[in-house]
Amino acid sequence: EAQVTQNPRYLITVTGKKLTVTCSQNMNHEYMSWYRQDPGLGLRQIYYSMNVEVTDKGDVPEGYKVSRKEKRNFPLILESPSPNQTSLYFCASSLSRDWGNTIYFGEGSWLTVV
Amino acid sequence: AQKVTQAQTEISVVEKEDVTLDCVYETRDTTYYLFWYKQPPSGELVFLIRRNSFDEQNEISGRYSWNFQKSTSSFNFTITASQVVDSAVYFCALSEALNSGNTPLVFGKGTRLSVIA
């Protein structure tokens, strides 16, 4: 079954404690990206990756890092989380950066930073 | 630059009423894709439809229908005979087809639909 898996789904953490949200897809997709969703703002892209070892900033990259060492995984790293990073996070993948291809979203990760 | 506007922040209807969710977009590209997603209270994003800019035919899927009009840059979504299970946040999104570089999905801010029994 084609899927994008995110972990954890729910997390409450404290300011400054490094955390990683993992994202894994089983479709051999080249293009992966992270979005955050905030009330009244819709979804905004944080980082994207066009392929292994190719990553770049989206619209709201501050406070985040990513890596793409293997095609299937695209973790989102919060080195020193702050309360303004409390959000719902989505990982997405697609065969290529052309969104004419089907886009698959993970189920979302609810992150609270206190 | 790409932009998607969903002017309706919240809509409430009584069950069995028809409801239309508006979506207006801006893009400089001639080739682009438009999407609608549903987000139920559980939080996941449920894909509803993808339409490319060259296909202006309206589409119907059960109680759902979409009206794409390039002349007004709109891609409106209508639910006929609404049901309580339709209660959710609905997002319209746009992506330009191929650019040098990133082609992110640009989302509207969403419309929260509440269907009251």
Description:
The complex is a heterodimer of chains A (114) and B (117). Chain A has no helices and eleven strands. Chain A has strands at 4-7, 10-13, 19-25, 31-38, 42-51, 54-57, 65-66, 76-78, 87-94, 103-105, 109-113. The mean pLDDT of chain A is 93. Chain B is an all-beta fold and 117 residues long. Chain B has strands at 3-5, 10-14, 19-21, 24-26, 32-39, 46-52, 59-61, 64-69, 74-79, 88-96, 106-107, 111-116. In chain B, a hairpin with a 4-residue loop joins strand 8 and strand 9. The mean pLDDT of chain B is 92. The interface between A and B is medium-sized, with 25 and 24 residues.
Q: What is the element layout, followed by pairings?
A:
The complex is a heterodimer of chains A (114) and B (117).
Chain A: E1 4-7, E2 10-13, E3 19-25, E4 31-38, E5 42-51, E6 54-57, E7 65-66, E8 76-78, E9 87-94, E10 103-105, E11 109-113
Parallel strand pairs in A: 2-11
Antiparallel strand pairs in A: 1-3, 3-8, 4-5, 4-9, 5-6, 7-8, 9-10, 9-11
Chain B: E1 3-5, E2 10-14, E3 19-21, E4 24-26, E5 32-39, E6 46-52, E7 59-61, E8 64-69, E9 74-79, E10 88-96, E11 106-107, E12 111-116
> What is the helical fraction of chain B, as a range of percent?
under 10%
Structural class of chain A: mainly beta
Morphology call of chain B? globular
Q: Estimate percent helicity of chain A.
A: under 10%
Oligomer: heterodimer
Quick recap:
The complex is a heterodimer of chains A (114) and B (117). With 114 residues, chain A is mainly beta. Chain A has no helices and eleven strands.
